[in-house]
Design a protein that fits this description.
482 residues, alpha+beta, FAD/NAD(P)-binding domain, eight-stranded mixed beta sheet, globular
Length: 482
């Protein structure tokens, strides 16, 4: 049941990216006004890059758990994405994946993901949110501090484009400002609590590029994903192709510390060939690159336990500002979306102005974030040179069990469905302990391991084509001066 706001209740949200706009959608029905403060001078009205979102240059996967969460907050958003060219990719049918245990079969559909550029995903959400009557965005606004004390936050101090500072009062402040959030510094200034922080950093670096999909690949092309194996005791290499809008493939290569890719265009496909299988490189050799190589290295997993601290009332932290994840697992957007749903569900039960609202909301937000955290650090801790707490006995036993499940999933539909439910964030990791899953893991493979990728005739036909001759990409500045 929606809480009817009494008087003028204002929520101020810090950050106009995905987490911030979803938080606005979550709270708008429960308050009089939602004000989103965005540092950029303007937010684009179309799906184009934003200067303060460098990670958008890299492939993103919006899993079913995240897409369904967004749809529940903003009905019709999925249709908006699909009409703009995004792909609804059935899982595991539409995924060619080499796991540490071997090649997965392409079983019948159990879940799905949305294949789209990050700019398109954000645009679809932003467009829907800005149609909500009581939501407005103030751009060119840099938040410099919180207003309030250790007991309660009552607003923020904002610096405008003219350099002038002013106070914006709020009944609730939601920090959704991402990895660069200064929330710990701001809390310290008002006498707030010390917040426990855990960092696990495998030193992952991304290199990404867009390609024009080869003729005949169509709308139903699969995701191609070559995973690393942290048990090999060497830097991991990961290679992925995600079909997106405009007939393009978004290709991301990543490597852990000691095995990072570079921005050198001549080495891009060579690096992909050095993954555990050269399949991605073979497809790229038959596709046309249409962008330069973009690199990104802010990939450490960072968990801040705000839900366990004595936080001031009137302050909630959401998304990457609370828990930021290595993007290689593709759970950041889905965790933020499920966090926004948790925020909404808390507002249904407890008025936003209630003294306990922020604490209850923070605990609810932490649950999906914690699930995504375990999926990420359960792998990253095992790579050579990883920074952070070394894996203990429990971590090693859990990793062995997950590997056993991954191995069994190659020939057992019960297990592959359970793993997919967890990977797509539709169900918690506890489903992996269900008696049927435990029995299947103990019983082992029901079908033999595959000796190669499970490709269709159409997909093999692309590989049978002659590789394209490569010409260096002409950079914009060279074309102007040439």
């Amino acid at each position: 049941m929606t809480q009817t706001p009494t008087g003028k209740t204002r929520v101020v949200i810090l950050g106009g990216s995905l987490g911030g706009t979803l938080a606005a959608a979550a709270l708008a029905p429960h308050v009089s006004e939602v004000l989103v403060l965005e540092r950029e001078r303007m937010l684009p009205e179309s799906p184009v890059p934003r200067s303060r979102l460098p990670q958008a240059a890299h492939a993103h996967m919006l899993w079913a758990g995240g897409a369904d969460a967004i749809e529940s907050l903003l009905p019709g958003t999925t249709d908006r994405w699909l009409k703009a060219g995004a792909h609804r990719i059935p899982i595991p049918t539409g995924m060619v994946s080499l796991a540490p245990a071997g090649w997965f079969r392409r079983w019948t559909e159990t879940h799905y993901l949305i294949g789209a550029g990050r700019d398109l995903v954000d645009w679809g959400v932003r467009t829907a949110v800005l149609e909500i009557p009581n939501v407005r965005v103030r751009t060119g606004a840099t938040v410099v501090s919180l207003v309030g004390d250790a007991a309660k936050v009552t607003g923020v101090v904002v610096r405008g484009e003219d350099g002038e500072e002013s106070t914006v009062e709020a009944d609730l402040v939601v920090d959704a400002s991402g990895r660069g959030s200064k929330i710990l510094e701001w809390l310290a200034r008002i006498g707030g609590p010390t917040v426990d922080e855990t960092v696990v950093d495998a030193g992952v670096r991304y290199a990404s590029r867009r390609y024009r999909a080869p003729e005949g690949t169509g709308q139903d092309w699969p995701v191609i994903h070559i995973q690393a194996d942290p048990r090999q005791g060497r830097p991991g290499r990961i290679a992925s192709i995600v079909p997106i809008e405009d007939g393009q493939w978004h290709v991301s290569l990543s490597g852990t510390r000691g095995g990072e890719p570079t921005s050198d265009e001549a080495l891009f496909e060579e690096y992909a060939r050095g993954a555990r299988h050269p399949l991605v490189a073979e497809f790229l050799a038959r596709a046309e690159p249409i962008s330069e190589v973009q690199v990104y290295g802010r990939t450490a997993n960072r968990q801040r336990r705000f839900e366990k601290a004595a936080m001031p009332a009137g302050l909630v932290v959401l998304g990457d500002a609370a828990t930021s994840l290595n993007p290689v697992y593709g759970h950041g957007m889905s965790a933020a979306a499920q966090g926004a749903v948790a925020l909404r569900d808390t507002a249904v039960k407890t008025p936003v102005t209630a003294p306990k609202f922020a604490a209850r909301a923070q605990k609810a937000i932490a649950r999906p974030a914690a699930a995504a955290w375990l999926l990420a650090v359960g792998q990253d801790r095992f790579y050579p040179g990883a920074v952070g707490k070394a894996p203990g006995l429990g971590d090693r036993l859990a990793a062995r069990y997950v590997h056993r499940l991954s191995h069994t999933a190659i020939g057992n539909f019960v297990v592959v469905k359970a793993l997919t439910e967890v990977m797509t964030m539709k169900k918690p990791a506890s489903v992996l302990g269900h008696p049927a899953v435990l029995f299947a893991a103990a019983r082992g493979l029901r079908r033999p391991l595959l000796n190669g990728p499970a490709l269709t005739e159409r997909e093999r036909a692309v590989l049978n084509r002659e590789p394209l001759l490569r010409e260096p990409l002409v950079r914009a500045e060279e074309s102007r001066t040439g």
